[in-house]
Model the fold of this input.
Amino acid sequence: MSAEATNPEARSEARPELRRRGRTRLDLRRLGRAALLGPASRDRLPDAIGHVAEAHRAHHPDADLSVLRRAYLLAETSHRGQMRKSGEPYITHPLAVTLILAELGAETTTLTASLLHDTVEDTDVTLDQVREEFGEEVCFIVDGVTKVEKIDYGAAAEPETFRKMLVATGNDVRVMSIKLADRLHNMRTLGVMRPEKQARIAKVTRDVLIPLAERLGVQALKTELEDLVFAILHPEEYEYTRSLIAAHAGDRDPLPAIAESVRVVLREAGIAAEVVVRPRHFVSVHRIALKRGELRGSDFGRLLVLVGENADCYAVLGELHTCFTPVVSEFKDFIATPKFNLYQSLHTAFATPEGYVAEVIVRTRQMHRVAEAGVVALGNPYTATAAPAPPAATSPTAAPQPPGEATEAAGAAKAADIDEERVDPTRPGWLSRLLDWQQSAPDPDTFWDVLRSELAQDREITVFRADGGTLGLPAGASCIDAAYAQHGEAAHGCIGARVNGRLTSLSSRLSDGDTVQLLLAHDATSGPAADWLDHAKTPAARIAVSSWLESHPDGAGPAAAAPRAPLSVIGARGGGGNAVADLPDATVRLAGCCTPVPPDVVAGFVVRGGAVTVHRVHCATVAQMRAVGRTPVAVHWRATADCRVTLVAESFGRPHLLADLTEAIAREGVEVVSATVEPPVEQRVRHTYTLQLPDATGLQALMRAMRDVPGVYDVSRA
Done:
């Protein structure tokens, strides 16, 4: 990206605390300055690539460095004569970005693209030249991080640039890795900008880049970006936090002594572990101060325990909780249940005899590498042994298809048979959802607003579909969100849902691990109600519902109906059907409260006028009759005759439902004696039918036919 910068020396001197309290294991700033300035002076810029090579070899001892040197020569010659706003040669920027990624463990292709990431945008180098000299992969990544032209997009250039990068990231996550490192170096050197421009860049970093760094798991970049944004957007809070840290620096720090106690405990238990004090960064100290008020010495850092194997993590946890007093509320197991950004660790805290509370992070060394570098630590997730990315959603600014798809199609198919999921674990979740809804964003402003809203969701849940699949959704998502995630635009006809087997409204929020079954109407005229927007959380659902409502201003969807009197249709048939009472000449009537039919066990009671009313033996009226001393009359069924029954159908409201139900009843050869439709409540409708069946043996078939009507979820005897 075109960087606008100031003197990095001035930046570092202005904030010595930020540099001093940076990341303890990856001092990116110190190494970045060394790469920029070289061992002697800026005149020896060609030696700077040696720092990149040294950092790269530390992670990849067998890496071929010749391609890096060729990329550096092309970048240096193409940027020659260009200067940053601080007056430094422009080549210092791609070098610093590349060194950041090298320290995080990025593989050679990423570093090559990083050295060249501004050449196509700011020099005469073309994508064809990059492709010819460095191959399709490098060309694809460089194109992915290249901005769209302002002359073509005007004010929409920034949103469309991010849309393009995200589409490219869907095919190759290394695109966003370079963008994050690029923004980190630009944020480090932002001081020469006008204050209003500093604030604008910092806000975009806060709203978009930092959440993306969190989702990609690149904590080493995320934490420093947070501190730099904090200093620009909240200078008073930053200065207060800086004063707290400066005051603590002059006090006795209790954490080293606590760390030594932990080392002794683990050594005596025979657990090989490395225990280090990990200072909190500025934003973390600020959050702890807001949470706890007055800070104590142990609040300015945490203990990091590194072990070799997963089992050792739990062994360490057991020793800590045995030898110290654990703070139970602080325990979290992110090993058994990793975060959606690859993060794995055990978090706990314990109280010391001196009254300090020490927070502890326990992880393996591999977990630590992934926690710091995220997807960068995975190397190249698109090798020939892994299933390649499916084609990403396209847009007017979409990046080209990823390299190697045609030549590796056979290998990809074989790999897909082995493992249907991509090696890149970020693709199936939040990134897939983002790529899906961005196609429907009607304009750049909507895309930009919804993107920031989507990235503000800091937790993800997994729900299970009734067919055995899973859906990844942001925390707080409703059944409406699940419907659009699973069915796309077909979810317009969703009329209800079952969550964990129980019927619930579409507005119900889902929890992690829920099983959701979505009920869809088959009526093409069905559509969402306006109040769905109050419960839809995902951009895909909100955009789809808004688009449908705009295209259907008359509201053909299942809007909430005003209360109305029940609709009744009365037939003219009555009598006792095939029930016969053991009373000579007695008139027999089937009770309307329970509508018995063969082969129900029944009882009859003589009522006023000498008629016998027949009830099912479990009817509440039978218990009442016996309670007042009424003697039942024996009743039996004729071998064959018609019968009358009352059925209750529970359904979701939709157009033509009553017609479809009566048609289903008619197809079974059953006569409707009466029908009552109650006013809808929360889109649910209750239908009560009194029916005359030609043969009682057809009752179960009739009930099945009624349940098969779209929108009907239950049919029962009255």
